[in-house]
Amino acid sequence: MRALSATLVLFALPAFAQDCQPAVDAAWRKGFTEGVDAVNAQLGAVTAKMQQDVQAQVNAQLSQLEERRVRELEQQLGAAQAQALAEQGPVRAEGMPQLPPLIVAPGGGVAPMLPPGMAAATGITQRPASPGDPAALPPGTTITITDPQKLPPELFRALMDYAAR
Predict the structure, then answer these.
(1) End-to-end Cα spacing for the chain
(2) How far apart are CA 67 and CA 64, in angstroms?
(3) pTM above 0.70, yes or no
(4) What are the residue ranges of helices labelled H in the chain?
(5) Burial of 85 by CB count in 10 Å (0-12 exposed, 13-18 middle, 19+ buried)?
(6) CB within 8 A of 34, min separation 6: which ones?
(7) Which of 44, 100, 146, 154 has a 20 to 30 Å separation from 116 between CA atoms?
(8) SS3 125
């Protein structure tokens, strides 16, 4: 009896397989599609990361190239300007007086640097250097403090003591 039932099942399998084939194909296609989608999702994330890394490298290289280009351009421009000024020589405009170079004044600000011959010919006299000790100043001396942060601490204390009297 078992042999008969096994034989009937074997004969029925091809018919059963034909009925199941569309369902098996659909399940296979569904699984394949889901697998492809999963792989594509992983590849998409990896591809995006690779693109970010490559873009960062390209940006860094472009930045270095730009810095080098600007540095070389500034050097070339500076050399060209220096050469042009050297070839030009001193410039004198007719009718324009030549001004002396400016220097930083001891008390702050800017003053002309007068050569000895020019200083003697003009009414401008150089101010004598001020003494280091405030007590050595002549009576009636006016002190203008333009930047208190530049005062030596001893002088600042002496001025504050004098002002507190």
Answers:
(1) 133
(2) 5
(3) no
(4) 2-88, 116-121, 153-164
(5) exposed
(6) none
(7) 146
(8) coil
